[in-house]
Write a structure and sequence with these properties.
It contains 3 helices and 16 strands. The protein is mainly beta. An 8-stranded antiparallel β-sheet has the order 1-4-13-6-7-8-9-16. Strands 2, 3, 5, 10, 11, 12, 14 and 15 form an 8-stranded antiparallel β-sheet that branches. β6 and β7 form a beta hairpin. The longest helix has 23 residues, at about 5-25. It is globular, with a radius of gyration of 21 Å. It starts with a helix and ends in a 22-residue tail after the last strand. Residues about 1-25 and about 230-245 have low confidence and may be disordered. Catalyzes xyloglucan endohydrolysis (XEH) and/or endotransglycosylation (XET). Cleaves and religates xyloglucan polymers, an essential constituent of the primary cell wall, and thereby participates in cell wall construction of growing tissues.
């Protein structure tokens, strides 16, 4: 009788491959499981079995969604393809926020523009209801032709914004010198597409061309690796690290990351609040006098 060892080995290999596929499928992002549509009715659509979400804007309304879970710190990734063509006046967002007048917020906003002009990548940070910490960039690629990955890393030491895993901004925790930092309010992740023609494009001088509507932005591969709490209370013994990896808790920038960050800021940053001396006649905010890369 021929040996059964090769057959057994093949079966074990097949089972191993099948188990790997099952685990991969189980851990893949699924918008049906991860988010709730918050406004826009059918303008927000979950497609492809939960792996793609589209947000649309017309002259009646935009659309948006929020995560089911709240988080206190974590790494949050989303792949986004923005509104193509003449997107002037539209704003697509991916951000974290708590609730209330003294809320915390970590913003990524994409300000549309006339056809052929680049998007503005707008970032801001709120702590205890106060923001005014804007940095803006021009992206080094066309964000409307393909999906790109946008990331917020938020831990107790710093907030890092990344585009395709390239750091573009760091906001450090400088509570020691009296600068508020978002570190004790749980936040949900949000995304939306809305009309901001009175603000987003050249101070409102360029209006939305509604003949181009509906405008559509696409989202996929949402990944939240952090301290999740669906009950809304502070993360503690009932919370969980959603993916098990805890590298985000201490993530900073090594020498290579610092070099990439400086290069991006030199070539692509178009506004930095710490450089806006006219905005702060009484003196720059305290954090502007410190290294923001720590």
């Amino acid at each position: 009788m021929a040996s059964l060892s090769p057959c057994i080995a093949s079966v074990k290999l097949l089972v191993s491959i099948c188990m790997t596929l099952l685990l991969t499928t189980a851990s893949a992002a699924n918008f049906f499981q991860d988010v709730d549509i918050t406004f826009g009715d059918l303008r927000a659509q979950i497609l492809n079995g939960g792996h793609l979400l589209t947000l649309s804007l017309d002259n009646y309304s935009g659309s948006g969604f929020q995560t089911k879970n709240e988080y206190l710190f974590g790494r949050f990734d989303m792949r986004i393809k923005l509104v193509p063509g003449n997107s002037a006046g539209t704003v697509a967002t991916f951000f974290l926020s708590s609730q209330g007048s003294a809320h915390d917020e970590i913003d990524i906003e994409f300000l549309g523009n006339l056809s052929g002009q680049p998007y503005t990548f707008h970032t801001n940070i709120y702590a205890l209801g106060k923001g005014d910490k804007e940095e803006q960039f021009r992206l080094w690629f066309d964000p409307t032709t393909a999906f790109h990955n946008y990331t917020v890393v938020w831990n107790s030491q710093r907030i890092i914004f990344l585009v395709d895993n390239i750091p573009i901004r760091v906001f450090s925790n400088n509570e020691a010198v009296g600068v508020p930092f978002p570190n004790n309010q749980t936040m949900r992740c949000y995304a939306s597409l809305w009309d901001a023609e009175d603000w987003a494009t050249q101070g409102g001088r360029v209006k939305t061309n509604w003949t181009q509507a509906p405008f559509t932005a696409s989202y996929m591969n949402f990944n939240a690796n952090g301290c999740a709490n669906s009950s809304g209370s502070s993360c503690g013994s009932t919370s969980k690290d959603t993916l098990g990896s805890q590298a985000w808790q201490t993530q900073g920038l090594d020498a290579k990351d610092l070099n990439r960050l400086r290069l991006v800021q030199q070539k692509y940053r178009i506004y930095y609040y710490c450089d806006d001396l006219q905005r702060f006649p009484q003196g720059l905010p305290a954090e502007c006098k410190l290294s923001r890369f720590l």
